[in-house]
UniProtKB/TrEMBL annotation:
This is Transcriptional regulator. Keywords: DNA-binding, Transcription, Transcription regulation. GO terms for molecular function: DNA binding; DNA-binding transcription factor activity. GO terms for biological process: negative regulation of DNA-templated transcription. InterPro entries: Bact_HTH_transcr_reg, Tscrpt_reg_HTH_GntR, WH-like_DNA-bd_sf, WH_DNA-bd_sf. It holds the Pfam family GntR. CDD domains: WHTH_GntR.
Length: 308
């Protein structure tokens, strides 16, 4: 869900934030397969944590197959095993970082969004905890269009479905002991509003500059926290990711109190792709259609218009 910014001061959970930051750098391509990770001393200095915390974070990434240690050489982003690079479905030659090598390898959002924005009509249906990742990626597509790198689409339509922070029964985020804290929900609302506004401004700027004739951005809220994130691009590609609940420490206004919460962190997370195309398997096509039906049903029956 939310970005912690700096590593939390709660020693119990610091290693998770360190692991999350490094995982995000691997998944967004900052650190490529075969790249050497910083030394333990460098990571200690960067994050302001102990060597034991760094070791624990490294072990988390190693268990996930994202990194591998080589005796006498250091720790590197994995090239093989569970962490092999896979090619984007569009065949554009770009490496997409895969955490697990199976029939449906997980990927990251950027190359698929690039592909989607090269269509004549662009549709984005999004169900997620926030739109932090999407807002940044859409801004990058706006730049591609404004720089003349790709031909502007004729229309762009985005539907964003997010958790309703007015609901005191949201399972996430909550205090560690399970109690609801309105300050935590207000913090989430600010994050939702900031990133949704960033995305909207990027798309409407394309319309205002006369580059895209039709732009529509709708935001609706549902009274529950999503356990997965779902992107449906141009009604032909579904990208599904997960929000594993984790403990983290945040600072809440007005007095800057630090509280430990159960939260969900999806920034930089990998996604499972399912494509509905002429050469897709019936299973892939069926999954995309099922995701679209699920999104449309929740949008129609459970979501209400956002007041921001």
């Amino acid at each position: 869900m939310t970005s912690h910014g700096s590593v939390p001061r709660d020693h119990t959970h610091r290693y998770l934030s360190v692991a999350d930051a490094l995982r995000r750098e691997i998944n967004d391509g900052t650190r490529r397969p075969g790249d050497r990770l910083p030394t333990q001393s460098e990571l200690v200095s960067r994050f302001g944590v102990s060597r034991a915390t760094v070791n624990r974070a490294i072990e988390v990434l190693r268990e996930q197959g994202l990194i591998e240690s080589r005796q006498g050489s250091g720790t590197f982003v994995s090239r093989s095993g569970r962490g092999i690079p896979a090619q984007a479905g569009a065949g554009d030659g770009e490496d997409v970082w895969a955490v697990v090598s199976e029939r449906v390898p997980p990927v990251v959002l950027a190359p698929y969004l690039e592909e989607a924005f090269e269509a004549t009509e662009v549709t984005l249906d999004v169900f997620s905890m926030t739109t932090e990742t999407l807002a940044a990626r859409v801004s990058a597509q706006k730049t591609r269009i404004m720089d003349g790198e790709i031909r502007p689409p004729r229309s762009i339509s985005a539907r964003l479905m997010l958790p309703d922070t007015d609901s005191p029964v949201l399972a996430i985020p909550r205090l560690q002991d399970g109690r609801d804290d309105p300050r935590v929900r207000r913090r989430l609302r600010g994050i939702l509003q900031a990133h949704a506004s960033m995305l909207s401004q990027s798309l409407y700027e394309l319309r205002d500059r006369g580059l895209v004739s039709e732009v529509s951005v709708e935001v609706r809220l549902v009274p529950f926290a999503p356990q997965l994130k779902l992107y449906i691009l141009n009604r032909r590609l579904a990208l599904q990711g997960f929000y594993p609940p984790e403990l983290g420490t945040i600072t809440v206004p007005p007095d800057g109190e630090e509280v430990t919460i159960l939260d969900a962190y999806g920034t930089g997370a990998t996604l499972f792709p399912f494509r509905a195309a002429a050469d897709s398997t019936p299973e892939q096509v069926g999954i995309v259609r099922a995701f679209q039906f699920l999104f449309d049903s929740m949008w129609k029956h459970q979501a209400k218009e956002a007041d921001f």
